Amino acid sequence: MSAGDAAFLHEMREFSRLYARRIGVFRGRALGLDYSLPEARVIEEVGRRPGGWVAIELAQYLGMDRSYMTRVLNGLEKKGLLHREPAPDDARKKQLYLTAAGEKEAAEIEHRSDEQMQAALGAVTAAQKKELRKAVAVLEKYLDTEGSL
């Protein structure tokens, strides 16, 4: 690895650590709620897809191990936040849906996520927001591809 590549890698890891701290990845509970970050993400993602997710596809989308996803789903189901039904095209697959209580929690997660981001970006000027939008677009372009982060 060249010195330039090593420096770039270091910079990207520093950014990743900064962002993880800013969004509270290591606080134990997400957004001041009684959910771990993976639980909150599952609730949020199932809530964002009205037609439901197939469990295995959600695990792949979130990059979660299947067995860990199963534990998260079991816990959320036990709390009455989601339910599973056989998928219409394959009864072996489980389609995920939020319950009414789960929909309420998804809305609260969305609300608190917005508040958290607003607080983090509160002092950012209009010009800085324009720069950030461009930077995020570049990050998405390079990181949201098969085999990338």
Task: Record the SSE blueprint.
Blueprint: H1 3-22, H2 37-48, E1 53-54, H3 55-62, H4 66-78, E2 82-87, E3 90-98, H5 100-120, H6 126-143
Antiparallel strand pairs: 1-3, 2-3
Helix pairs in contact: 2-5
CATH topology term: Arc Repressor Mutant, subunit A
What structural category characterises the helix and strand content?
A: mainly alpha
> How many DSSP-defined strands?
3
Provide the succession of SSEs. Answer: HHEHHEEHH
Q: What is the CATH homology-level superfamily?
A: Winged helix-like DNA-binding domain superfamily/Winged helix DNA-binding domain
Protein traits:
three-stranded antiparallel sheet; Arc Repressor Mutant, subunit A; 149 residues; mainly alpha; globular
